[in-house]
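Translate structure to sequence.
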């Protein structure tokens, strides 16, 4: 049976795209918010987009999203720790996906912030040490992620200190047509992945596009 997926901060572009994509793929999805009514409104709009395929998508408070089998944290980076800490009992032992990037804008240029623990994912792990934190989806543009009828045409870098949890997330990525999860090391790799997202956004700005990452040379085993 498909795992349920909760999205904390699901009302933004990133979280709602993950929510609609996995609801379309048949998962039960709980799109979370600090305000249940806001989540219910966004979920209703997405259900309408999905037509008959959207019955398994609901909106609720973040705390309800945290009860799902797999939980995605899709808030801005500076809200992550304060958001997940009160949910630590629900998140303990679960695969928790960190997709937040700590970036800043300087005119037309994006830069990466250097965080004390290295990455947003490592801050999340320090706030909820019993969660199986996996960093993924940082560099996937929300728009393409949310276009459920279209293949994604992207590799998705996945890293974690929990190898089994990373495999779970890599397989979840692989459910999206055209997407491939690429195992990219321990959670310490998250800093580079989050930072690289600033570089990709700069490329997007310069070339007026939305790039996707595709690595060559990986032989399928
Ligand atoms: N946008 C993209 O294309 C994209 C792609 C990959 C990764 N990301 C990353 O994913 C994360 C979310 O991106 P986004 O563009 O969706 O961001 P966003 O729209 O700014 O925020 C997402 C949601 O987080 C909640 N939120 C806002 N401030 C918060 C706070 N201080 N504490 C707790 N919750 C807060 C809000 O929901 P409620 O008010 O309903 O609670 C908001 O709708 C970011 O860290 C970003 O770097 C974004």
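Result:
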């Amino acid at each position: 049976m498909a795992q349920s997926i909760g999205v904390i901060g699901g009302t933004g572009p990133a979280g709602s795209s993950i929510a609609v994509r996995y609801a379309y793929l048949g998962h039960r999805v709980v799109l979370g918010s600090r305000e249940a009514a806001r989540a219910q409104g966004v979920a209703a709009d997405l259900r309408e987009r999905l037509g008959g395929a959207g019955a398994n998508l609901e909106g609720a408070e973040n705390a309800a999203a945290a009860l799902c089998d797999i939980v995605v944290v899709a808030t801005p980076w500076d809200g992550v720790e304060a958001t997940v800490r009160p949910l630590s009992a629900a998140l303990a032992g679960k695969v928790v996906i960190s997709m937040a990037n700590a970036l800043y804008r300087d005119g037309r240029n994006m830069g990466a912030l250097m965080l004390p623990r290295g990455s947003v994912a490592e801050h999340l792990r320090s706030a909820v040490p019993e969660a199986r934190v996996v960093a993924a989806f940082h560099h996937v543009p929300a728009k393409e992620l949310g276009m459920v009828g279209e293949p994604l045409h992207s590799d998705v870098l996945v890293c974690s200190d929990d190898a089994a949890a990373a495999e779970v997330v890599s397989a979840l990525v692989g459910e999206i047509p055209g997407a491939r999860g690429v195992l990219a090391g321990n959670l310490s790799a998250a800093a580079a992945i989050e930072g690289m997202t600033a570089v990709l956004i700069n490329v997007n700005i310069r070339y007026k596009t939305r790039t996707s990452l595709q690595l060559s040379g990986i032989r399928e085993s």
